[in-house]
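Retro notes
What went well: the complex prediction finally ran end to end.
Inputs used:
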Amino acid sequence: MLCENIGVSGAHLTFAGRDVTELAEKYGTPLYLMDEDKIRDNCRIYKKAMADFFGEGSFPVFASKAACFKRIYEIMKEENMGIDLVSSGEIATAVKAGFPMENSYFHGNNKTDFDISFAMDSGVGHFMVDNMCELEAINELAGERGITQKVILRLTPGIDPHTYAAVATGKVDSKFGIAIETGQAEAFVKEAKDFENVQIVGYHCHVGSQVFNEEGNVYLEAATIMLKFFADMYHKYNVKAEILNMGGGFGVRYTDADPYMDIAGNIETLSKHIKDIAEKLEIPVPRVLMEPGRSIVADAGMTLYSVGTIKEITGYKNYVSIDGGMTDNPRYALYGSKYTVLLANKMGEECNFKADVAGRCCESGDIIQPDVMMPKPVRGDIVAVCTTGAYNYSMASNYNRVPRPAVVMLSGGEDYIAVKRETFEDLIRNDI
Ligand SMILES: *Cc1c(COP(=O)(O)O)cnc(C)c1O
């Protein structure tokens, strides 16, 4: 199976040890399932490997744009994770969940004055600064409050992992961060170090997303460039940044063709590399932060749908339409993401029917996955899409006034609602 929390019992698919057809019956479809125990396991794999190999003060920071709702922040608090935030909305959600905001890191390439003020007043620990305009605003707003704001500078090491352009963010011409190669990063530090109300505590880079073992050397390359920069700033300007934040991006298995990612192994290799380079450059070994998003929550998620129309276009192709679509999972429509799709109540039957699994929206591109092989379904069958824990709920919309599905958490054989299904009343709440 794709992941160890997916199984089969009789003709039914199981997830986190539960018969998913029973959960579909209990809560209705479409439905997001999240395996809480798996989320915690994933956090612990990162926590342990980072503490073991990088040492004290190095830890993972969950990139919460991958899955953002109150319950997630409570789990992150319980697991002692840091969190990345990218908007005032995410900050507000984390605050409501009682997350200790000193362990939060605020990203974004265009923080407004409102965002900056809101983040400071919410006690956000670190600002990930994207550009000089933003740093000036932070300096001013921190001054008004009489605080010294800790900042980490986001840099682009000029590395292009072999992934989609839409998710490759470490290139020189990226909209995020400041380029090292052009000399702009150095000019930035040179000026920023004298700002009164900010303190530069580290540097950040994020090379991209869905990166696997064989491309894992992009992290080593990025670390080399970042440490060299670190050393330059240390020796030239006496800037003693203590944190190196290597971003997120470890890949997950969407289909059986995807490799397994050795998280601990990659962290061990990276730690040796960083220690070696730091020694050669005669700088202290920095504390290392990483920002996993997808690899914390993706395989903890599954989406259930009911089959509606089955359309066979003779001589062309077949469509199996489901009661959700791009409103709850826009990722195939956005960038052709692959998914494993199963007919949850007919497991073990021969997969001899080929169809595009289509959503219900008025948009031809509303496809969850093309060319799926499955047993021929009938109306009312349950379709399960695997590995949907990342960037599904958080990217969901109300296009066509489709209410967002509920998020049901599974833990130790129990199930509970973490996010309620939206009602029609929710949809019109702000309409005057
Ligand atoms: C999106 C993002 C992450 C998380 O990436 P994943 O591929 O989900 O691990 C981490 N850091 C930054 C800055 C990001 O933009």
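What we learned: The chain has two domains: 6-35+298-428, 36-295.
What to try next: split runs per interface for comparison.
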